[in-house]
Every structure is written in C-alpha cells, then in structure tokens.
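Box 3.1 A note on notation
Throughout this textbook, protein chains are presented in two layers. The first layer is the amino acid sequence; the second is a token string describing backbone geometry. Keep the layers aligned when reading.
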Amino acid sequence: MGVLIVVETWRAHGSSVATLAFPRYGQSVHADLGAEALRGGHGDTASSIEAMALLWALDRRDAAEELRKLLADNDIVLLDRYVASNAAYTAARHHESASGSSVEWVRELEFGRFGLPAPDLQVLLRVPVDLAAERARTREAADFTRDRDAYERDGDLQARTGEVYDGLASDRWMSEWIVAGPDSDPQQLAVQISNLLHNGQGVTR
C-alpha cells in the first residue's frame, strides 16, 4: 500500500515514525458508537450532523495524551483522518463550503476547546468518487462482516466532501497542504513531505 511505502521510505532514511488512524474502532467507545450509528443503531443519532461530529471529535480528544507522547518520541507522526476529516464531512452534510460556519465550529471544538495539536502539514489524498466507491464495494465483497456505512453509500455526500477538502487545501486550513492522487509515487511523496517539514513533527492526512 502507498502509505506503507511512505512510512518505510522515512524509516529507511533514519526517521522514527509513528502512525495513528481515526476513528479508533475497537479502542474508543465514541468511535464505536459512531460506527454503529452509521449502520442504523442508536435511534436518530446518525441524522444529527453535530452529534456525529461530536462523536468523532471526542474520539480524538481521548487520544490527545497518546498523540502528544507520539509527537515527543518520534520525528514524524502520520495521522489518518485527523480534524480536517471532521470539518470536511460536517460542512458537506450541511451543504457548506470550506469557508462555512461548520468548518469554524469544528476548528474551535477540536483545536480550541479540546486542545488537540495542530498539524504541521496535511496531505490530501484526492481519490475520484467513483474509484473510492468501487474500493468500498470491493472491501465489502471481500469481507462479509464489513458492510458499507451510510457515508460510504452516499455518492453525493462523498462528492461534496471532496469539494470541501479541496477548499481546505486551497485555503491552507490550519497548515500547509500537499495534494496527492492515486497515481502519485509514494517514495517521491515521502521525500516531498520530508523536505517541507524540515525535520519537524506531525504529519496528518
């Protein structure tokens, strides 16, 4: 996988690297409640945009101490679906752009009230909606225990979320951004990120 190659490239050049993926399914009650809601559980929870955003945000808040330790102990920390993910999906569900009030609400909640570390650099993996949907269907077919959730089944939502992500990257929301695609060379991407960070810490995607 591309992400693994990026991490292996950094390590081959002597950097200590840690990774953490959100939501932390199986580790966080908030993440598990969110996943269950997206598959029809917990009444009307999934219909509340802010309720779902709060669950994802609380998952990250509960990981804040672990995240700070990873940052202290490693040269690079790669986070999968950090705060920008919540901002993009929340805005998209409200049919807002990256400059809408939802993005600011998520920023104040997670970076302000919860005090989560701000990223030094963010990487947008821009995947066409059709390709992302096909990958989700393939995962579902390969694993009968993993059905697509409500977000994955909603092609219009995925398209709007992609537009918000593009806006966040264009606006340099919370940090500099790199935009990569499915054909990007992982080793070249690793070098590009390293050059931009100048041996700093904290990479999110």
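The chain has a mean pLDDT of 90. The radius of gyration is 17 Å.
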